[in-house]
Amino acid sequence: QAGLPAQAIQAYGRALALKPDYFEACYNLGCAHLNAKEYIAAVRHLSRATRLREVCPEVYNNLGQAHEGLKELDHAEQCYAKAYAMDPSMLAACFNLAQRMKAKGRLDDAARLYKDAIARHPDSASAINNLGNILRDQQRYDEAVACYRQVVALEPGLAEGHYNLGSTLRLHERFEEAIIHLHRAVQLRPDYADAWNNLALT
């Protein structure tokens, strides 16, 4: 199905026509439209799925993504907030909501969400990296460096972690260590333009 989105959409639509209250078909149809970037159709079917099953955080998270695709950002935020309230352990909803907070300049709220995610998923390099990014935006560089060190310890092969650590160390004029991590970033991802640029500046 992954390679045949049109056929999947047609099949889910047929299932839904035969059984209008078929939640799984309605949800899957909405997701198929979302994956195809057909956001209006995705919103229509995912909204219907929320009426068929009120408590389902995955539906609200995907509905938020569909609204975001339509640049309906307030609606997107409301959906992410509902998904997160239903399941605070759901990283996708937490991250999406935190990104909306960051976009609105609410960095403390974004940081709180990432800290909550880390409390529930202490080995989530993504959550720790995202918190580091917020702390860096707040110019709390020592705390950001501590986060990025955790990231590269958890996932030594993550180029973004080495890049973030190296770039932040460069701001502290800790150039030797910065070069080590920026070199590692471009070794892991040779097309990492930002890492090459910062390496040249260090």
Q: How many helix segments?
A: 12
Question: Main β-sheet, in a few words?
Answer: none
Mean pLDDT: 96
State the secondary-structure class: mainly alpha
Per DSSP E runs of 2 or more residues, the count of β-strands stands at 0
Order of helices and strands: HHHHHHHHHHHH
Radius of gyration, in angstroms, nearest whole number: 20 Å
Keywords:
single chain; 202 residues; mainly alpha
Description:
With 202 residues, the protein is an all-alpha fold. It contains 12 helices and no strands. The N and C termini lie far apart (47 Å).
Write the layout of secondary structure elements.
Elements (H helix, E strand, L loop, with lengths): L4 H14 L4 H13 L3 H14 L4 H13 L3 H14 L4 H13 L3 H14 L4 H13 L3 H14 L4 H13 L3 H14 L4 H9 L1
Helix pairs in contact: 1-2, 2-3, 2-4, 3-4, 4-5, 5-6, 6-7, 7-8, 8-9, 9-10, 10-11, 11-12
